[in-house]
Design brief:
alpha/beta; 9 helices
């Protein structure tokens, strides 16, 4: 297994454990749990973090190194990632939005944090949580979203490669082509490095199956059932997620706050904790 998908990352000022949570008869998810070394902070309200599609921990290491010294953190790797354990052959039907939602419901039940934690998520992780909260399936004290997706629509050529049957060696070639396309579109150097690392470390089969299942997905137009305080972190320079769509989402979620940051990379650095603390103090 790729080094990105195994082991408990060692962060100064906190202790990490690598755990596996069974979310169905056939699937277990990798969960990383950090506890601050400072005993006075070990009983602080926990944070559950759900990173984006295929996201590897290394992209979040700068932020987590500082944040994990301040509060307990439960970092959940969703089922499309190479770390997930399947006891059967994966199929497109294993990667429905419903499956992703139920996984998080079961993780929260496993750790007994339903309704008593804060949420922090990115990209697909945010989309899953928004859908789940609108359905009334997940509750928390607050939720912060980094560059959430309103939909998972794709241009013609990516759709063609996703839907067309192809051998594994060609799948790997397609992923390299995706790296090239992202490198051309993304201007932020830190974001380019993260996406390259993420794409090259994926389980190619799961990438295709999850993309096939989720392609064309859209968040409900009505998000009025979301009742917890929400903040949406976004950068104007983030060309992959689009600021215009983020602004639409802010209007749809009752009372949601827009948190503008200098760049997408900034949202992965410890400096963003200043903005996050301001959000928490405003609640």
């Amino acid at each position: 297994m790729d080094k990105h998908w195994v082991g408990a990352p060692d962060l100064s000022g906190s202790t990490c454990s690598e755990e596996w949570v069974s979310v169905s008869n056939d699937v277990s998810l990798r969960v990383l749990r950090w506890t601050p070394d400072n005993k006075a902070l070990q009983d602080a309200r926990p944070l559950m973090m759900v990173p984006g599609w295929g996201s590897v921990f290394e992209g979040w290491r700068p932020l987590m190194t500082e944040w994990a010294t301040r509060r307990p953190i439960i970092y959940v790797e969703t089922r499309e990632k190479a770390s997930a354990r399947f006891t059967k052959r994966e199929r497109v039907t294993d990667f429905r939005m419903e499956d992703f939602i139920q996984d998080l419901v079961r993780v929260m039940k496993h750790y007994d944090i339903e309704g008593s934690c804060d949420l922090f998520s990115s990209s697909l992780g945010s989309t899953i949580l928004i859908e789940a909260m609108q359905r009334g399936m997940i509750h928390a004290q607050s939720s912060l979203f980094v560059a959430p997706n309103l939909d998972l629509k794709m241009p013609f050529w990516p759709r063609f490669f996703i839907k067309t049957p192809m051998p594994k060696f060609f799948l790997r070639f397609t992923i390299k082509m995706a790296v090239w396309a992202v490198q051309k579109k993304v201007k932020e150097e830190g974001q380019r490095v993260r996406y390259k690392r993420t794409l090259l470390s994926q389980n190619a089969g799961r990438v295709r199956l999850s993309a096939r299942s989720l392609i064309g997905y859209e968040l409900p137009d009505d998000l009025s059932a979301i009742s917890i305080p929400c903040g949406i972190i976004a950068a104007e320079s983030d060309k992959l997620h689009g600021l215009e769509n983020i602004e639409k989402l802010v209007k749809k979620i009752p009372g949601a706050a827009m948190i503008a940051v200098p760049s997408n990379q900034y949202a992965h650095e410890p400096d963003v904790l200043v903005d996050i603390d301001k959000f928490y103090k405003s609640l």
